[in-house]
Structure formats: structure tokens, C-alpha cells
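Long-time lurker, first post. I've been practising inverse folding by hand and with some scripts of my own, and I keep getting stuck on stretches where the C-alpha cells seem ambiguous. Below is the full C-alpha cell string for one chain I'm working on. Before anyone asks, I'm not after the true native sequence, just a reasonable design that respects the backbone. If someone could post their per-position residues I'd love to compare against what I wrote down in my notebook.
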């Protein structure tokens, strides 16, 4: 496997010219934090990702995490040390609340850092990523006392967090969960049940694990309305914050998976485990929704991270591998495959899609930042709608693209891509989970069509379409097709609209990607003249953005018939 190089210039470009970091720097909450030094911070994070975390990736894939006879999970060689360096540098605290030890940076800066950590080793990155979900949940819904007890150690990374939602009969249908929580005389609860597919549910990298568990109290209403959220620590914590005895929650099995082998995916058994209620009983689902946007954005980021890693590896391979001849090849010699037009096409396609994804994800994160901290309430509301509209697209479109780009990375390698030795296949295997978890991509498409399009009578989508108009003729065509598809979806609610939801999401993803690349094309053209020292970078950016606009974006309007075919095109739906 070729080494990973943090794409710092591309990241800085997306932060400044697509996501609008300079606008965030004007917001009072961040005007003093030193966002003008963001590039130094990114360079430091890039070093950690490249030199410390990336070297653990191959070994992690080959050995995986293992469950020993005592029920402890042993992580692959090098993981504990890499994790210590991650938390030692404060990298788990970047965007967390300073009141609990966080550095208070905007989410978009954190997202840029997490992109590099994830590219370096996706399986490893899931551990701090799940902690972020726990931090987000407790920050939004924990009591004052709970925040003080749990947040500082989660933010510093000495403890990690998990999310325990899924049960065998309750996957997409979370409301079907049956784990039960019984109130105790001392105000705590005891929980019984089994959770499956729990990412980093047990491991040896941190002193404690804080599980966020969804369960049902006695006589709770059926479905999602009867779900409550509990904190269930691996080790009990006393009032002084000291770690106590082991709680009755344990890992009883690890899944054998297609990819992310080093990320322990645990079957967790709760056998009368002590838990603390978060908020009130039956508020679990709305509480989950507040952290879902961020979690979905971070899973979307996995699509980009794997695409970038696969692209870098494909570029390195294509420069080395020699096959066939070009008109100027010396007699008897073979040309590097990167000189063949079809291989160049694949490399440029991978690069263009990765850049479009990065723009979309950073833009989405910056909208969430504006929604959280902009001083003007109307601006906050508009930014919140923009972030909510883009989130299912970021999650589903980017994770689908991640799989596609990683697959193309294998194609560039030819037969050696199908052989594990090169490592090209690991990126594809690792990327394959992201369209499935954190709400499958099918569920994201339903969310987009059924909940996000009707928001505020369609105003957020209308504002986005207007902003995307007038920059490029192919983009205008795609925007027009989206407007037509949206009208059709509004006129055909129910099964007809649901049948077209996934192609509609793909169409919107491709088009927002086109908007980003049209902006990149314009910016890069202007900066080539003013920054001649980076002329190669600006020329490469113009090449990839033009390629996207001319060769990838036109597939968006072509999806219109798929969006508008209706449910009857799928045959009989009920048995
Ligand atoms: C490696 C891994 C890590 C995971 N980590 C965690 C974790 O940390 N915590 C946690 O709680 N869970 C976790 N999960 C669980 C994950 O979130 C679920 O697998 C996911 O939500 C899908 O549920 P399911 O597997 O039951 O699939 P199902 O819900 O059975 O879905 C099967 C198919 O049917 C479709 N489908 C289902 N319902 C509908 C519907 N109403 N309309 C249209 N289509 C539908 C789906 O889109 C999918 O294509 C993890 C899973 C894996 C594999």
C-alpha cells in the first residue's frame, strides 16, 4: 500500500474558497480563536495522520481487533500508541465546548482534520468519531451534572463513547427495539437486553467507555414514542469522578466483516446494567435526531476519505506500472499506464468526484456552524435549513461515490487491484459499510424527499437552486431538471415519490457537486494569474472541475426519467 499524503492544499482551498472559512472568522464566537492560523493546525494534523495513524492501517486490516476469553477486545499492534498521540495532541477536542475542555473551533475545521484521520485509517477513526456522537448527544441533552461528569473525559479522549441503538429486529426500524430499562429506588435504572453491530463497543484504547443506550421503560408506548436514552458506562463512576467496579454490560461477540476489520463491531449484552436517564423518559428519539445530522455528515466524510486514499494510491501505481506503448515510447520500452487516455480518464474522474465531495461536506459543515453561532437569528435559521437539506445528500451521495471511486482505484491497478497485496482492495472493502450504517442510503433518500424538501414550503431547496443558477450551462440544465423532478415529487406523494427518492438524491448530489466545481473552476482561473507560484495546482483544479462539469454533471438530468417513473415501474409492492 502506498503511503498517505495529507492533501493540505486541496483542503485549504475547500475551506477558504468553497466553505467560506473567512466568513466564519467574522462571527464573534470565532473572531478571537485564530482561524487565520488554520493552515498550521491542519499541517500538524496532517503530520499525525500521515506519520502516526496511516502506518497502522494495513496491519489493522490484516489482524483485526480480537475478543479474548475474558471478554476483552484487543486492538491491533500500534493502535493504542496512535490513539495516545491523537488525544495527547488534543485532536479529539477541536470543536468541543471550551467549558468542558474543548478548543471551540468551528465544526468545519474539525471535519477537515477528521478527513485526514479517516483517510489514514478508517477503522481507527471510527472510535473518536463515535465519541463525538456521544459528546454531541450529552452536550445537547445531558443535565448540568451529567455534562460535568461525562463530557471532560470524553472530550479529552481518555474515555470513549458509543451509540447502542441496533437490535436484531430493530435496524432501520429503531422503534422496534426491546431493551428494557427499569427504574430503581435510587433514581438510576437497570437495563436488560442485547444490542448488535456496536462500533468500538469494547476495546483497550481508553480507560472507560460511555455507552449511550436506547431502551424502553415499563409501560412505554410502542414504537419510537416509547424510547428513552440512558448513559451506561463500562466502569461505574463515583461522585468524585473516580472509576469504580465493572458495570453489567459486556461484549459477547465480534462480527467478521467485509472491511474495517480493526474496528470492533460488538454484540453487547446488558444484564441489569446500571444506567442514568438522559432528559425525560420517552424523549430518546428526538434526542437522537439532534446528533444525527453531525453523525451523518461524519459518515459522509468517510466516502471522501476513502476516495482520496484510493485516488492517491491509484496515481502512484499508474506512474509505476508500464504497459503498452505511446507514439513517443522508445523502441522496445513500455509506457507508464498513466499516459494512456483511458487511465487518465479514470484518475481524473476519481479526483473530480473527490473534490466535489470535499466541497459539499465542508459547505454542509460550515452551514451547521453558521446555524449554531451566527449572530443574526434569520441567518441562523436559513443556515440551519441549508445544513438540514444537505445532510442526507452529504451522507448518501458521498458514501456512494466513495465506493465507486475506491472501485475505480482497483480498476486502475488491473489484476493487482484484485490482489490484497497492493492494498487497493482494502479501501473499497472499508468504504462499503458507509452507505449502510447511520441510516442506510435508502433511508437518507426518504428523509430528503419526505422531510427535507417540504421544509418551510420548499424554500430551502428553492434558495439553493437559485444560488446554483447562472454559473455554467451544464449546471443550469441540471438545476432545471431538479426543479422539474421536485414538482413531480410534490404532485405524486406516497409510493410514487418514494420510488424516485434515491435517483432524486443522486441527481441533487451530482448537481451540488457541479455547483461546487463551477465555483472552483472560476476561482482557480482567477488565482492562476495572481499566484503563479502555485500555477500547477490551479491548472490541475481547472482540469478536474472542467472534467466534472462536462463529463460527470450531465448524468444528473439523465436521472429525471428514473425519478418520475413512479411506483408502478417497480411492479407489485404488497404481497
Ligand atoms: C459495521 C457496522 C457498524 C455499525 N455500528 C453501529 C453502532 O455503532 N450503533 C448502532 O446502534 N448500530 C450500528 N450499526 C447498525 C446499522 O446502523 C444498521 O445496520 C443500519 O441502520 C441498517 O439496519 P439493518 O442492518 O437492520 O438493515 P435493514 O433495516 O433490515 O435494511 C435492509 C434494507 O432494507 C431497506 N429498508 C429498511 N426499511 C426500509 C423502509 N422503511 N423503506 C425503504 N427501505 C427500507 C434498507 O435501506 C436496506 O437496504 C452498524 C452496522 C454495521 C454493519
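-- Answer (accepted) --
I ran through it position by position. Result:
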Amino acid at each position: 500500500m502506498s503511503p498517505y499524503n495529507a492533501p493540505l492544499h486541496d483542503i485549504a482551498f475547500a475551506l477558504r474558497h468553497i466553505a467560506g472559512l473567512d466568513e466564519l472568522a467574522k462571527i464573534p464566537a470565532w473572531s478571537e480563536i485564530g482561524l487565520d492560523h488554520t493552515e498550521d493546525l491542519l499541517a500538524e494534523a496532517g503530520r499525525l495522520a500521515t506519520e502516526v495513524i496511516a502506518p497502522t492501517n494495513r496491519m489493522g486490516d490484516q489482524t483485526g481487533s480480537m475478543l479474548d476469553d475474558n471478554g476483552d477486545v484487543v486492538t491491533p499492534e500500534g493502535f493504542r500508541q496512535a490513539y495516545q498521540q491523537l488525544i495527547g495532541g488534543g485532536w479529539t477536542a477541536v470543536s468541543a465546548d471550551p467549558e468542558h475542555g474543548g478548543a471551540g473551533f468551528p465544526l468545519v475545521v474539525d471535519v477537515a482534520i477528521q478527513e485526514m484521520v479517516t483517510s489514514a485509517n478508517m477503522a481507527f477513526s471510527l472510535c473518536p468519531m463515535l465519541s463525538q456522537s456521544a459528546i454531541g448527544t450529552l452536550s445537547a441533552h445531558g443535565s448540568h451534572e451529567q455534562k460535568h461528569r461525562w463530557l471532560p473525559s470524553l472530550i479529552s479522549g481518555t474515555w470513549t463513547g458509543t451509540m447502542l441503538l441496533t437490535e436484531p429486529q430493530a435496524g432501520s426500524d429503531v422503534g422496534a427495539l426491546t431493551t428494557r430499562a427499569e427504574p430503581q429506588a435510587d433514581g438510576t435504572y437497570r437495563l436488560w437486553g442485547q444490542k448488535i453491530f456496536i462500533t468500538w463497543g469494547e476495546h483497550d484504547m481508553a480507560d472507560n467507555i460511555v455507552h449511550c443506550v436506547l431502551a424502553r421503560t415499563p409501560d412505554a408506548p410502542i414504537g419510537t414514542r416509547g424510547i428513552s436514552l440512558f448513559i451506561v458506562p463500562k466502569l461505574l463512576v463515583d461522585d468524585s469522578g473516580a472509576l469504580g467496579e465493572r458495570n453489567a454490560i459486556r461484549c459477547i461477540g465480534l462480527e467478521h466483516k467485509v472491511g474495517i476489520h480493526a474496528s470492533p463491531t460488538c454484540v453487547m449484552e446488558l444484564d441489569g446494567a446500571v444506567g442514568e436517564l438522559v432528559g425525560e423518559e420517552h424523549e430518546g428519539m428526538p434526542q437522537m435526531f439532534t446528533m444525527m445530522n453531525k453523525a451523518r455528515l461524519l459518515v459522509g466524510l468517510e466516502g471522501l476519505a476513502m476516495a482520496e486514499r484510493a485516488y492517491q494510491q491509484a496515481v502512484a501505481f499508474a506512474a509505476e506500472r508500464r504497459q503498452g506503448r505511446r507514439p513517443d515510447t522508445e523502441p522496445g520500452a513500455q509506457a507508464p499506464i498513466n499516459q494512456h487516455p483511458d487511465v487518465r480518464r479514470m484518475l481524473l474522474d476519481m479526483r473530480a468526484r473527490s473534490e466535489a465531495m470535499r466541497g459539499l461536506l465542508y459547505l454542509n459543515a460550515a452551514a451547521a456552524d453558521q446555524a449554531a453561532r451566527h449572530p443574526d437569528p434569520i441567518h441562523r435559521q436559513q443556515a440551519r435549513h441549508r445544513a438540514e437539506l444537505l445532510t442526507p445528500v452529504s451522507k448518501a451521495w458521498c458514501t456512494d461515490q466513495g465506493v465507486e471511486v475506491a472501485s475505480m482505484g482497483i480498476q486502475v491497478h488491473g489484476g493487482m487491484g484484485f490482489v490484497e497485496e497492493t492494498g487497493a482492495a482494502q479501501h473499497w472493502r472499508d468504504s462499503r459499510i458507509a452507505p449502510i450504517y447511520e441510516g442506510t442510503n435508502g433511508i437518507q433518500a426518504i428523509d430528503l424527499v419526505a422531510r427535507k424538501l417540504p421544509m418551510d414550503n420548499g424554500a430551502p431547496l428553492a434558495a439553493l437552486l437559485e444560488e446554483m443558477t447562472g454559473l455554467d450551462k451544464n449546471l443550469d440544465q441540471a438545476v432545471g431538471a431538479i426543479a422539474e423532478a421536485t414538482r413531480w415529487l410534490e404532485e405524486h406523494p406516497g409510493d410514487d415519490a418514494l420510488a424516485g427518492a434515491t435517483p432524486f438524491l443522486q441527481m441533487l448530489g451530482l448537481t451540488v457537486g457541479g455547483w461546487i466545481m463551477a465555483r472552483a473552476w472560476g476561482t482557480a482561473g482567477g488565482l492562476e494569474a495572481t499566484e503563479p507560484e502555485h500555477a500547477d495546482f490551479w491548472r490541475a483544479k481547472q482540469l478536474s472541475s472542467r472534467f466534472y462539469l462536462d463529463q460527470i454533471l450531465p448524468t444528473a438530468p439523465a436521472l429525471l426519467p428514473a425519478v418520475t417513473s413512479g411506483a408502478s415501474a417497480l411492479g407489485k409492492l404488497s404481497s
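A couple of notes from the structure itself: Residues 163-166, 171-172, 197-199, 257, 265, 433, 436-437, 440, 442-443, 446 surround flavin-adenine dinucleotide (CB under 6 Å). The first strand starts at residue 66 and ends at 67. Happy to go over any region you disagree with.
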